[in-house]
Write a structure and sequence with these properties.
elongation factor; transcription regulation; 40% helix; three-stranded antiparallel β-sheet; protein biosynthesis; N Utilization Substance Protein A, Chain:P, domain 4
């Protein structure tokens, strides 16, 4: 019987272009289901295909106990399972294989077609072999989609959920911007320029901290390109998200100034113990430094890793006099 099952596994694996281990798993699952149905067993079962025959165990609290079942009855149930339950389990195995292929693409950009827009705003995206979900929270706020739209996104993760798999996509994750930069800018992909950190307010603004492998090279110019030619396609893909490219320096004063650009910093006070920086800008440039809804200074905080308190020159001087 086992020899016949082994041959069945080999043949099905060949016909369906599936790995043998996945076919064997499907067959074992079908035998388990058939035994549970026949014996009305609720406990977990485990099946082994050995040279000596089919072995079945009940599993309780991590321990395995042989199931009392005669070989003839087991062969009958296994033969039934191979015919009746196996096809359904094989369909599940084929689905599992398709999703397992996408696990290798976690963290990479994928392209698909929007098939449905759910009531909660989530998108069902056809990736060719499988469907994926682009949750509302992972969409750029100003964007909207309809069935048939082509969409590019980061494959965030593949998760197992209630016995099946679910692929989650994202267009808001910092790594989506990182991968777009790698795709558009050869110097980043080839390692000449390293992306050290990314902070995003999706659809509005992003700050990208970069460092050149060769200190004599200007990484900002390489990334932005002549008149913004290299960064323009990335901005376009992100629905106009403004991208500030910042050259890394270990001088925190210079780094903070660059992170708040284009607002000019006229004075600065650094507290290394608190990782806090107080910054003075001209009064008429205060709103520019802080940004709409505080976005600019919030991103500067995240890209530098320091808390930046932006104030007018007048308030800066008053605080200086008090301290």
């Amino acid at each position: 019987m086992v020899r016949n099952l082994k041959k069945l596994i080999e043949q099905v694996a060949k016909d369906k272009n599936l790995p043998e281990w996945l076919v064997e798993k499907a067959l074992k699952n079908s035998i388990v289901l058939a035994i549970k149905k026949d014996r009305k067993i609720k406990n977990n079962l485990e099946v082994e295909l050995t040279e000596d025959g089919i072995k079945v165990y009940q599993v309780r609290k991590g321990e395995k106990f042989p199931l009392d079942i005669v070989p003839e009855e087991l062969d009958r149930i296994a033969a039934y399972a191979a015919k009746e339950e196996f096809l359904r389990e094989l369909e599940r195995a084929d689905e599992e294989r398709r999703y397992l292929e996408f696990i290798e693409l976690e963290g990479e950009i994928v392209i698909g077609i929007v098939r449905r827009v759910l009531e909660n705003g989530d998108l069902v995206v056809d990736l060719g072999k499988v469907m994926a979900i682009l949750p509302k929270r992972e969409q750029i706020p100003k964007e909207s989609y309809k069935p048939g739209d082509r969409i590019k996104a980061l494959l965030l993760k593949v998760i197992r959920k209630r016995g099946t798999y679910e692929i989650i996509l994202s267009r808001t994750h910092p790594n989506f911007l990182r991968k777009l930069l790698e795709a558009e800018i050869p110097e980043i992909k080839e390692g000449e320029v390293e992306v050290l950190n990314i902070a995003r307010e999706p659809g509005e603004r992003a700050k990208v901290l970069v460092k050149a492998k060769d200190p004599r090279i200007d990484p900002v110019g390489l990334v932005v390109g002549l008149r913004g030619s290299k960064i323009a396609p990335v901005t376009q893909e992100l629905s106009g998200e403004r991208i500030d490219i910042i050259k890394y320096t270990d001088n925190i004063e210079e780094l903070v100034k660059k992170s708040l650009a284009p607002a000019p910093v006229v004075d600065i006070r650094i507290d290394p113990n608190q990782k806090r920086v107080e910054v003075a800008v001209p009064k008429e440039k205060l709103s520019s430094a802080i940004g709409k809804r505080g976005v600019n200074v919030k991103l500067a905080n995240r890209i530098t890793g320091w808390y930046i308190d932006v104030m007018s020159e007048e308030d800066f001087k008053k605080l200086s006099q008090l301290s």
